[in-house]
C-alpha cells in the first residue's frame, strides 16, 4: 500500500515537473520581448479606453494653422509592385501594380521638377534639425518586398539617384520565390546607399486585430530577421493593412523604431506622430496626371 502511494506521488511529481518545463519552454521565445517592453506598457495599459489616436492630427483641416507656423508638408507615397501587369489581371492586382513604363515617367517627372526623394530615416533627421531641408522632399515607399521593385523599379531609381524605402514581410525574404526579393537583392539595394530597409511584420498580419503576444512576436521577429539577414537595424516600419493601435505603436517604440507608415491618406508634417505617418496611395490604374496631382497636393 505504502509503495502504491509512493508510485502515485512520484508520477504526480514527474507530471508537475514536465508541465512546468513545457510552459517555461513555450514562453521562452516571447520572454525577452515581454520584459523589454513591459515597463513601457505600464504607463498606458490601464488607460486604454481613453486613448485617442494621434492620427486625428493628420486631418487636413488642421494644416492651415501649421502652414502659418512655417511647417512644411511632405508627401509619403505608397507603392507596392512595379511590374508589366497582364491585361487579364484582377482589379486588385492592377491597383497595386505600376507598369514599369508609367513608373519611369513618374520618376522622370519628379526628376525634371526638382523633387528630392529621401528615406524615412532622412526625414526623421531633417525634422530633428540634423539634416538640411532639401528642395521639394518626397518619400517613395514600397510595401511587401515584391520582386518587381528590384527588377523594374530599382534600375530606374538608381538612374535618377533617388532614395527610397522598402518594407519587408521578412518570412519571404531569402526564400528565393519568384514573387519576393531575395536576401542578396535586398542587400544590393541597401549597399547602394539609396535604399532604406524597413519592416512590415514577419507574416503580414493586421496588428490592430492581433492579440498582444502576436503583436510583440511579429515586430520582434521581423526586426531580428533584418538584423540577422542584413546586419542592419531597421528603424522604420509599415503597418500591414494600415492596422495600428496604441499597443503596436508602443511595441515599435520599445524596439527602437522612430518612423512608421500608415494608410491614412494625407501629407506628413513634423507635427505628426512619427509612428503614425499618413501616406498617399499610388494606384496602378491611374495615369501620369493623377500622379502629378498627388505629388503636388497642397495642404
Ligand atoms: Zn503589405
Polypeptide structure, described:
The protein is elongated, with a radius of gyration of 23 Å. Strands 2, 5, 6, 7, 8, 9, 10 and 12 form an eight-stranded parallel β-sheet that branches. The protein has helices at 2-42, 63-68, 91-96, 100-112, 120-127, 147-160, 183-191, 212-230, 246-254, 288-295, and strands at residues 73-74, 76-79, 81-82, 97-98, 116-118, 137-144, 164-168, 195-199, 236-238, 259-265, 268-269, 277-281. Mean pLDDT is 83; it is low at 21-68. By secondary structure, the protein is an alpha/beta fold. Helix 1 (2-42) packs across helix 8 (212-230) and helix 1 (2-42) crosses helix 9 (246-254). It contains ten helices and twelve strands. Helix 6 (147-160) links the parallel strand 6 (137-144) and strand 7. It has one domain (59-295): Alpha-Beta Barrel (TIM Barrel), CATH 3.20.20.370.
Task: Give me some keywords for this one.
single chain, 299 residues, alpha/beta, TIM Barrel, two-stranded antiparallel ribbon, 12 strands, elongated, binds zinc ion, hydrolase activity, acting on carbon-nitrogen (but not peptide) bonds, Polysacch_Deacetylase
- Please summarize the sheet with the most strands: 8 strands, parallel
CATH class: Alpha Beta
The global form is elongated
Please, what is the CATH homologous superfamily? Glycoside hydrolase/deacetylase
CATH topology category name:
TIM Barrel
Provide the low-confidence segments as ranges: 21-68
Secondary-structure element order, N to C: HHEEEHEHEHEHEHEHEHEEEH
GO biological process, one term: carbohydrate metabolic process
Transmembrane segments: 7-26
InterPro entries: Glyco_hydro/deAcase_b/a-brl, NODB_dom, Polysacch_Deacetylase
Keywords: Membrane, Signal, Transmembrane, Transmembrane helix
